[in-house]
Amino acid sequence: MLNLLEDKIDTPLGPLWILCDEQFQLRAVEWEEHSDRMVELLNIHYRISGYSRVASHNPGGLSRKLQDYFDGDLAVIDTLPTATAGTPFQREVWKALRDIPCGQILSYGQLAAQLGRSGAARAVGAANGSNPVSIVVPCHRVIGSSGALTGYAGGVTRKEWLLRHEGYLLI
Question: Which of 51, 63, 128, 129 has the smallest set of CB atoms within 10 Å of its CB?
Fold first, then answer.
């Protein structure tokens, strides 16, 4: 059985759940009002093997590091370890998301092409939307081909805030 250590922090965008395993690898990061989605993803990925959620204050220093990100230490998220389940394609997309530099964006089509899967923008979008470790696996850095801020499970307002926070100036 997988024990997930959980904490919740206050951020400028609202309360944020942080769940990690006992090796302090992030398994889920989700906004409080979307915790139902987080539970759904946890059940999809871990129900068969079993998991439990255990309250923990600042497990492995992860809560503090995420707070540091919101306080302006943008590089800290590049150092945070993750361990995600998901399909091989989803994990490939999520790995590619971590390679998008802070302050930069890609379109879903550009990300698909970068993965050698031109024409798979919708599949990339679907994988992006099922990312269980938002912010750290920066799905907010992917936008529509027209430049529209689309497809962020935490809401477009949060996506815009995160992009501005990271130095991407929106037109």
Answer: 129
